[in-house]
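Hey, resending since the last one bounced:
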Amino acid sequence: MPWRGVLDELENKIIGQMTEAEEHATYNGKWHGFLTIGYKGKRAKVINFSYLCLANLINEMKKVALKNETEDAVSFKMDIAFNYQLENLAEWNKKALKIKKNYYRRGIALNENFKMALIEQEINANAILLPADEGLAINVENMNRYLIQANKNQAKLNLTIDSTIVTFETVGWFFDGNKIYELETNPLDHGRRNTDNLTPDEVLKLVENAGSYLAHQVNGTGEFNYGWFACFDKKIKHYNSLRHASTTYSMLEAYELTENQAILEAATSALTFLEKNFIFEKGEVAYLIEPELREIKLGGSAATLLALTKYMQITGTKTYLPLCRKIANGILSLQDKTGKFTHVLEYPTLEVKDVFRIIYYDGEAVFGLLRLYEIDHDAKWLEAATKSFNHFLQADYWQNHDHWLSYCANEITKYIPDRAYYEFGLKNAFDNLTFIYERETTFPTFLELTIATKEMSLRMEQAGEYDLLAEYPIVELEKTIMKRALYQLNGYFYPELAMYYKNPARIEGSFFIRHQSFRVRIDDVEHNISGYVRFYGLLKQGEISAKAETVS
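The structure tokens again:
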């Protein structure tokens, strides 16, 4: 769509909205704006503007936008600054050092004429802030490099402790080539498109985009590109076979929802690679191996079981059933008579390396056994799962508040609707519900945990377990699910955010971890897919409201 008509429409929107905010939207009598030109395969270009009159500011931004409407420009964004604060660098620095990495959400003008002003997305996408216990919060090397690259300064900038800076917020609008999006201004949501609700169609699109992203990370052999640090398009070099398996499982979940054939084809290729390169068989026992560490992890075998059983479920084949039985036997070989698991063996000696490694493995193993039982109907898988779940009860495992424990509590109560099992699942979520609701990081497993609990509560209603349910605030659980589903969008690479990074095409449609240097690792995407697939189910069933107003 040609930009001229869009720019005219946007001019009216901006003037209508910002004129009322003039008291907070000017600094030293001037309006300050930023035009971002987005490209598919390179970092966006950001151009600064300062004018006495808002109309003149917008008019000049329009002219420059039209000059930049080239074949390789795919989008543009306009930001207007407001809510300015003049700050002494030393005092600002004390505050900035205490802010979680990449969670600084204001723009910074390094001089008062705003020629060297950076909006929040520029700052974070170029790793310009580096909080620590002491020192300067600004990474001067990264800052100077970007200022020169962006033509905002031609020489290295020397900051002193007596320097002053101006910090500010922005209100923005983004055009993706087809549609204008108003962007969020709340600090923790800042810069992404405004989302008042999540419809099933919107969730479906999120899952399909993320599933397609993972499909594109599977190379010709079936191995994944394991991950990227988005700021500088830096590849994560090591590999993890457990995450290979669990990511493949999530891709199959994405295919089951979207029916996108490319996702299934890539997942099938990843499964073939897994079978050829990561499976160790010995008689009737098999394990997933971690070649880099020469380890066998309980969680790896469990994730493999989940991926293979999901593949058989959605394709209607029994292709992997013999291998699944061997892997399940391998899991049982790590289980003692009390139901407790050994977590890590050395490979290839099979000697015990770690009796306990991480709580995730236990619930994951039980969940995997139950998924095999659903297909194979061999009582020994259910008996082994039950033995371990009883151990979870005796050891008060619910205190770990782990999403895999929620999954397996939800799953085992389909076969054994024991009141103690139900209560375990409820405690696992509700004892930590306030923390989950208030968490500032987009921790994706929280959505998985709470939705598995909600699914279990729905079956409890069907079973007439009203007295037990009455002890727990289900409404608060639903609010928390909605809060997390909306909040996790802050960890999604919408194009209006991806455009600021070195290689937007690489990361668009993926999920990232902000405080881990905007890391996009396959398992970061995996957990978001799993959560949103289940969230979609609740929305379609009408079991949860899609409106943001439900969040208090």
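Residues 332 and 384 are 7 Å apart (CA to CA).

Sorry for the duplicate.
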